[in-house]
Amino acid sequence: MNIVVPIKQVPETSNVKMDPETGTMIRDGVESIINPLDLYAIEIAIQLKEKFGGKVTAVTMGPPAANKALKEAIAMGCDEGVLVSDRKFAGADTWSTAYVLVKAIERIGEVDLVVAGERATDGDTGQVGPNIAAAMNLPLATYVSKVESLTENSMTVERLTEEGYEKLQLPLPALLTVVKEISYPRLPTLRGKQRAKITDIPTYTVADLDVEENNLGLKGSPTRVVKIETPKVTRGGKILKVVDDQSLNEAVDNLIAFMKMKEII
Amino acid sequence: MKYGKVTKEIIEQLVNILGEKNVFSDEEKMESYSHDETPIEQYQSMPEVVITPTSAQQISEVMKLANRYLIPVTPRGAGSGLSGGAIPLFGGILLSVEKMNKVIEIDYENMMIVVEPGLVTNEINGLVAEKGLFFAGYPMSLETCYVGGNIAENAGGGKAVKYGVTGQYIVGMEIVSPIGEIIELGGKIIKDVTGYDLKRLIVGSEGTLGIVTKAIIKLSPLPKFRTNLLVLFEDVDSAISTVPKIMSEGGIVPTSIEFMDKLSVHTACNYLNEHLPYQKAGSMLLLEVDGTKQSQVDEDAEVIGELCLENGAIEVYVADNYTTQERVWSVRRNIAEAFKVYSPHQSLEDIVVPISSITKLMPMIEKIAAKYDIKMPSYGHAGDGNLHTTLVKNPDSTMEEWYDIEEKALLELYEAVKVLGGKISGEHGIGAKRKKYMDDLVGPGEMAMMRTIKKALDPNNIMNPGKIFDLK
Q1: Percentage helix, strand, coil, to 5, in chain B?
Q2: Is A13 on the interface with B (CB under 8 A)?
Q3: Would the pLDDT of A173 be above 90?
Q4: Strand partners for A60
Q5: Residue B468, in any domain of the structure
Q6: CB burial class (10 A; 0-12, 13-18, 19+) of residue B431?
Q7: Cβ contacts (< 8 Å) between B302 and chain A: which residues?
Q8: Looking at B190-267, which runs of residues are DSSP E strands?
Q9: Chain B hits for A12, Cβ within 8 Å
Q10: Which neighbouring-strand residues pair with A115?
């Protein structure tokens, strides 16, 4: 079972400051981390390997510093890492990124399963996973919350929908994008870190991949960013204050009335 | 000692000294000054008037006035204390330093900062970080607590193994003495044996010997990199016996060595829905190493990790980025919250013993917990021998039963600590909460010396009276 996990390095955003004038993020001193949702993809890939044997390869496109993300993925239990890095890839949108990643995955070799995170916390598009599936002509299951069964040439998964769950059977090879519900990412161990330290990570550049230059980087990207603005928060809220038993009862009554009005109860 | 009441005339005189907006006595506004982080139902006490002075001169005049009318004065920082030190037990004047929150000077050449006592501790770090400096002696509540309170309690924290406690960084200060004199102690100097080290006497005196109105703080180079190790052990012994080896055999002084016993680990992990394989763990260590070079930090972490494995660790996890570091620290930070779900009534303790005695202490604690049918998780700063053993009320017992159990169990805990050569508070202080145990647990000679100092400096016993010990 050969599994590839495309991952992304993203800025750690919980302590991030925004430039009030430009509306963009102040990147100075911001740490780069593995996209938190990709950790779930890594985890389920490792679990499947542990159960069915095979190999997990993490692949990322990014600057040389993205090596750190791959080392962390190997420390968690991935077997190998591949860095796809070239100045010519800079500024790629989701389509161009997927295009290059597909070429990289093809170079890695025979693949039975590609597992990606649901979306990245920076771009928030959730497009790269499905894009890869489309370009490779793989059956796709998005928002996967559970892998029910796996045989040599097919798998059954449960996916999260707005109303509940959907069960899908996919022939292999296939691509899954996974949600948090699927598992709990493990922490890297000392032994894992030591293994990652001595594992060589090959870098694929433009020269190593069968790519057309017209499809690369900013100029190969059909997406145009016209304007970036911070959305205004329009959600209002009402706080029911409770100071004593009487106000507690009133607050509960108000809450019940509100939920009935909204047809929640 | 019979204290005077705060009369209308006294309030008028306070207004004359401080101005109207710095004096108030309406109940509603004063309520938040009547307690700290100790259980409100046990330790709350209302002041008669709250004042918010803006200068040492004003405080000096207030102290002179208070001596004339024998009004107790309770100094207060952010109110995040854990021993009731800032609670006005006898009413009187509550003196909040909240408006004295300025940075007076940042002296980069000497790597020092001069601040007023009402400055939030973490603001120092925000100001000097860009110059690659930080204040190393801060406690875990650094985002809310004030510098003045840190000095009064000689606060420690999660990084004391390597960096020590607040007092080590206070090289000088200005204080107003209990009789109203403004006095400078120390200075921008690292060494000073020019007479008694009085600034160190003020540090940790819990506001009973004077009010700090200015502090000169030594800054340290800010480490650029840090790595955490979360280590699961089968039992307490294997975890604690590893601690001294890290320093002696490994030759490394970690920034933090935090310990969590089985009960703490299981309760916090369960509360956080943390799926670490903690079920087998009988205890856990959380270590941090920091430094200016990534390679050095990595190497130190590896040496420590290997030592842990040699000492029977079940597993060593490495956290060297934001995601994983938040995850491992949240286990430690959420212990108190996790137990509140089980029972909101607790007594958070702060015992400190020689590091190697922790293994002897743990079974003693288990016995006390079993005897009184309460939970007693222990967690805290293993590298300092400082444990926040917590007494958690059995939800089935009444409050009356709980108060009775709390007092008896505390005394047994403290006696166990004493037998092992430890003390009842490492960083939270005695305050109002623990003073009744002082005479039993501290030697008579030491207590006499403390009382002599107090009487000499505060002849009318109006400076935060009723804290640490009662005068005989």
Answers
A1: 40, 20, 40
A2: no
A3: yes
A4: A83
A5: no
A6: buried
A7: 190, 193-194
A8: 211-218, 220-221, 225-233, 256-261
A9: 321-323
A10: A176
Determine the pLDDT at residue A23: 64
- Domain of residue B412, CATH code: 3.30.70.2740
Chain A nearest CA to B274, separation (Å): 8
Encoding tokens for residue B111? 């790597």
**A151-168: average pLDDT:** 95
Give the Cα-Cα-Cα angle B116, B122, B127 (nearest 5 degrees): 80
Q: Flag if A189 and B321 touch (Cβ within 8 Å).
A: no
> pTM of the full predicted structure?
0.88
Residue B85 is encoded by which pair of tokens? 């030190």
pLDDT of residue A22: 66
Tell me which chain B residue has its CA closest to the CA of residue A193: B318
Q: Do B322 and A12 touch (CB under 8 A)?
A: yes
Mode of pairing for the β-strands spanning B170-176 and B211-218? antiparallel
- Determine contact, residues B173/B189, Cβ cutoff 8 Å: no
Contact at CB, A31 and B315, closer than 8 angstroms: no
Per CATH, the homologous superfamily of domain A2-220 is HUPs (3.40.50.620)
Q: pLDDT tens for residues B304-314?
A: 999 999 999 99
Interface contacts (A, B; CB < 8 Å):
48
> What ipTM was reported for this prediction?
0.85
* CA–CA gap between residue A143 and residue A179 (Å, rounded): 5
Inform me whether the pLDDT recorded for A13 exceeds 80.
Answer: no
B324: nearest CB among A184, A187, A191: A187
Identify the residue among A193, A194, A198, A243 best suited for mutation to test binding to B, counting B beta carbons within 10 A and taking the highest.
A193
CA distance A191 to chain B (A): 8
d(CA A87, CA A68): 18
Q: How far apart are CA A116 and CA A102, in angstroms?
A: 13
Q: What is the pLDDT of residue B56?
A: 98
The answer on B283 and B372 residing in a single domain is no
Which residues from A are below 8 Å from B321, CB to CB? Answer: 12, 31, 33-34, 68, 72
Where do the structural domains in chain A lie, given as residue ranges?
Answer: 2-220, 232-265
Are residues B298 and B405 both part of a single domain? Answer: no
Tell whether A154 lies on the interface with B, counting CB pairs under 8 A. Answer: no
Mean pLDDT to the nearest integer, A151-155: 92
Mean pLDDT of A136-164: 95
A34 and chain B: CB distance < 8 Å anywhere? yes
Q: What pLDDT is stored for residue A264 in this prediction?
A: 85
Q: How many CB atoms lie within 10 A of CB B26?
A: 8
Residues B133 and B208 in one domain: yes
- Which residues of chain B have a pLDDT value below 50? none
Tell me if the bond preceding A173 is cis, omega within 30° of 0: yes
